[in-house]
């Protein structure tokens, strides 16, 4: 085994869990951590805001009200939190999320097709019940291709639609983001491992002439439409000369429609990757839960930032992210 496969095997062995269950547990643990950090004000103000929102928060914290202007020293509890919150990376490191996504997608494509050591290390840690009811080869290939398209598009957007900025984000955001994209590049195919182990596959097995299933016919347009809307939102925000209330139609009833689109993208993948007899792919469903909660917390922060900077009228009658729900 090579160092990468040794690392994978050691990590899975340490969890003492099936690889599929371990991946699901990672996403659940990640979104529970985000919730636990976002609920207490003392943690939310330190670790959740980033970019312009973090700057706004820092400015408001540096101008306390008269009633709280009495000098006071940091407590033994808040001092470590302040030190931890001070560990920041440039906001431009967001680009690295999608570098990790593209590289991971390509890496696992090579591993799966060649039955590489890393793929074998993951497959060896999957219980028989998770191998029996597996995604089809066409499902694996379609979902892998869509994940590669998503990662590539977002990477191009980050490179082409980003402006020089001195803003920063907490290193925990960066760490969790990279870990998520590395993990989801495995989640996209892991429930098809039983199929991938059944035969030696070559490009001759790829049949793009097959009639798409009803599920594909309904869910693939959701992915494409949501991707287009998200790109339109990102391009519009990039075109703004300065931070202002967005006037684009997509922002009329939503504070963060690009987050709505992101959730729709992962929802479509969750449905497209469902094994036979299942409504959803449970591993990708846990990834979708992480995406929805993570972006939901950020959307709530964005709403407060808009209201603080431009007035409550700027967000009145708008949903944060999910129309009719949140």
UniProtKB/TrEMBL annotation:
InterPro entries documented for this protein: 3-oxo-5_a-steroid_4-DH_C, Dfg10/SRD5A3
Entry keyword set: Endoplasmic reticulum, Membrane, NADP, Oxidoreductase, Transmembrane, Transmembrane helix
Gene Ontology molecular function terms on file: 3-oxo-5-alpha-steroid 4-dehydrogenase activity; polyprenal reductase activity; polyprenol reductase activity
Keyword Ion transport set for record: no
Coiled coil: none
One GO process term, biological-process aspect: polyprenol catabolic process
GO cellular component: endoplasmic reticulum membrane
Disordered: annotated segments: 56-76
Membrane topology label: Multi-pass membrane protein
Keyword Repeat: no
Compartments, record wording: Endomembrane system; Endoplasmic reticulum membrane
Membrane-spanning intervals of the chain: 22-39, 170-190
Domain of life: Eukaryota
Function: Plays a key role in early steps of protein N-linked glycosylation by being involved in the conversion of polyprenol into dolichol. Acts as a polyprenal reductase that mediates the reduction of polyprenal into dolichal in a NADP-dependent mechanism. Dolichols are required for the synthesis of dolichol-linked monosaccharides and the oligosaccharide precursor used for N-glycosylation.
Sequence similarity: Belongs to the steroid 5-alpha reductase family. Polyprenal reductase subfamily.
Protein name (record): Polyprenal reductase
Source organism of this protein record: Aspergillus steynii IBT 23096
Higher taxonomy: Eukaryota, Fungi, Dikarya, Ascomycota, Pezizomycotina
């Amino acid at each position: 085994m090579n160092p990468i496969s040794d690392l994978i095997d050691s990590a899975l062995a340490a969890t003492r869990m099936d690889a599929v269950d371990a991946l699901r547990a990672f996403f659940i643990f990640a979104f529970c951590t985000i919730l636990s950090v976002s609920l207490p004000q003392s943690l939310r103000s330190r670790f959740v805001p980033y970019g312009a929102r973090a700057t706004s928060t820092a400015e408001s914290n540096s101008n306390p009200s008269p009633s709280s202007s009495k000098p006071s020293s940091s407590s033994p509890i808040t001092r470590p939190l302040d030190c931890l919150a001070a560990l920041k990376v440039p906001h431009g490191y967001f680009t690295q999320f999608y570098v990790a996504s593209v590289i991971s997608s390509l890496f696992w494509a090579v591993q799966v097709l060649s039955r590489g050591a890393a793929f074998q290390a993951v497959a060896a840690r999957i219980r028989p019940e998770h191998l029996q009811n597996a995604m089809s080869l066409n499902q694996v290939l379609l979902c892998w291709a869509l994940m590669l398209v998503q990662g590539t598009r977002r990477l191009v957007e980050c490179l082409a639609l980003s402006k020089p900025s001195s803003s920063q984000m907490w290193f925990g955001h960066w760490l969790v983001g990279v870990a998520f994209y590395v993990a989801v590049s495995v989640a996209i195919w892991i429930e098809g491992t039983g199929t991938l182990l059944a035969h030696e596959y070559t490009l001759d097995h790829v049949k793009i002439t097959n009639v798409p299933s009803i599920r594909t016919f309904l869910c693939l347009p959701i992915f494409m439409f949501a991707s287009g809307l998200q790109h339109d939102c990102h391009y519009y925000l990039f075109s703004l000369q300065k931070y202002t209330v967005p006037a684009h139609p997509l922002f009329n009833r939503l504070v963060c429609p690009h987050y709505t689109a992101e959730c729709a993208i992962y929802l479509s993948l969750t449905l497209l990757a469902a094994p036979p007899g299942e409504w959803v792919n449970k591993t990708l469903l846990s990834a979708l839960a992480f995406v929805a909660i993570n972006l939901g917390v950020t959307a709530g922060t964005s709403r407060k930032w808009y209201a603080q900077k431009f007035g409550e009228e700027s967000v009145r009658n708008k949903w944060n992210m999910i129309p009719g729900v949140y």
